[in-house]
Amino acid sequence: MSVDYVEIAVTDLSAAAAFYRAAFGWETIPYGEEYTGFRTPAEPEGHEAGGFRLADEVVRGTTLVQLYAEDLEACAEAVTAAGGQVVEGPFAFPGGRRFHFRDPSGNELGVWTTA
Fold first, then answer.
1. Which of 57, 72, 61 shows the shortest CA–CA distance to 111?
2. 90: Cβ–Cβ under 8 A, 6 or more apart, which residues?
3. Helix (H, G, I), strand (E, B), or coil: what is residue 113?
4. Where are the transmembrane segments (predicted)?
5. Nearest of 103, 23, 99, 111 to residue 55 by alpha carbon
6. Domains detected in the chain
7. What is the C-alpha separation between 8 and 53, in angstroms, rounded?
8. What does the DSSP 8-state code read for residue 73?
9. What pLDDT is stored for residue 63 in this prediction?
10. Buried b (16+ CB within 10 A) or exposed e, 47-61
């Protein structure tokens, strides 16, 4: 069994789509006013990695989604340039290094690398 799809609650669909496109190169697929799917550059054609669901508020501190990047520093710069905020790190942890960031809706995610 593996994780197939991640749904992220956001308070502004267009801001979320713009942020993740700019920071990570994700393609977004709009499905109306309350949902937008996303495909990462690694996804096979026709497969979505997840979606953004419109919500009144975002609750942090439960599940932490971790993304992977070869170049952690360049990724942190891309997050900041796209309007996100690095809130922790980069720091070492067993298995590599990582940082945490908040997207424009306030979701906290992590990015890690083995180097």
1. 72
2. 72, 73, 76, 97, 98, 99
3. strand
4. none
5. 103
6. 6-113 (3.10.180.10)
7. 6
8. H
9. 77
10. ebbbbbebeeeeeee
| pLDDT tens track for 30-60 | 999 999 999 999 888 888 999 999 999 988 7
CB 31 within 8 A of CB 75: no
Please give the model's pTM, rounded to 2 decimal places: 0.84
CA distance 85 to 24: 14
Structure tokens that stand for 101 in this block: 């960031």
B/e letters for 8-35, b = 16+ CB within 10 Å, e = fewer, are bbbbebeebbebbeebbebebeeeeeee
Find all residues with CB under 8 Å of 94, minimum gap 6, and list them.
Answer: none
State which residues of the chain have pLDDT below 50. none
The residue written with tokens 């990570």 in the block is 24
